[in-house]
Amino acid sequence: MMELREIASDVYACLQEDRGLGTSNSGLVNRAGGLVVDTFWDLPHTRQMIETYARVWRLPARRVVNTHHNGDHCWGNQLLPGAEIIGHRLCAASFGKERPDFMQMLRNGGGSEDPMLREMARQLAAWDFAGITLTPPTTLIEDRLELDLDGIAVHLIYVGPAHTAGDVIVHLPAARVVFTGDVLFRLCTPVGWEGTYARWIAALDEIVALDPAVVVPGHGPLSGVEGPREMQAYLRYVRAEAKRGFDAGLPALEAARRIDLGPYAGWTEPERILFQVERAYRELRGEPYDAPIDVTALFRGMHALRESRRAVA
Ligand SMILES: [Zn+2]
Fold first, then answer.
1. 247 alpha carbon to ligand 1 midpoint, in Å?
2. Distance 271 CA to ligand 1 centre (A)
C-alpha cells in the first residue's frame, strides 16, 4: 500500500504503510524535471513508487537525493536511469556496507531451524532483493547544497552523524516542508547506526528551527514539529534510562528489558530500543561514533525482547 499526498504545490510524499522493517517514505518535488527524495528497498516497491509518481509527473525524475545509505532509502536508485544522484560524501562512502544478496539470503532463510532467522525471513517476506545493482550518489555534499527547481528553492542540509554518518535533510523553505530521512521515525521506534545522541538531538532541533508546516519522516506518517519534538524526548528518555542500567552494571539487553516504555509503548517495533541502549553504552564506554556494531547480536537481542514481551502479554 502506497499513498500519494500532495503536501504543497508541486510537492508530494509517497508514504508506505508501516509494516515494520523497511517501509520507508519518499518525496517528489515536481519541478525542473523532478527531484525524488529517496527510493525504496527493492525494485518491485520502487517500481510501484514510480507508478505512483507517474500520476503527477510527465517524465521520470532528473534528480534523486539519498538522505542516507540504508538500503530502504536507495536500493531502487537504478530504476531512475540518467538521474543525477545526490547524497552526502559519507552516504556514498557507506554504500555496500549492506548487501542485497545477503538480505535476499536472510529473506529466503525461512527453512532455517534458528527461530531468529525464521522470524527475520517472515519480516522480509514482502521484499525481493533480486536484481539490485548498488547505485550510489555521484554528486556529493559536504555541508549544504542549494538548488533552484524552476523557482522552488530546495536546500540539502547535512545534519549527521545522527541516524547514520551521512544524514541529509531536504528543506523547502517557501513551502515549509522538510523531508527528514531517518533522522525522524514517526510513531515507530527508531533504529540508529553511526552517530551520537548529541548530534541526533541537535539534528531534531535543527528541523524544529526550520519551522516546517509539514515534516515527512523516513518512516511513519506525516507530522508537524511535534514529530521531531516527540522523538527528541524519546532519545533523551532512553539515554537517561540506559545510563541507569549502565551505572548498575547491567548488560545492555537487560537494561533495555527493564525500561518502562511509558508513552512510547504504542510505537511500532518497541524492541528496537536495544539500538538506542547499545548506543548509550558505546558512548558511556567512550567509544567513537562509528565504532563497529554487532548487528547479528543486536537482532538476536531484539528477538529476545520480543519473545519476553510476548511471554508477559
Ligand atoms: Zn529507513
1. 31
2. 16
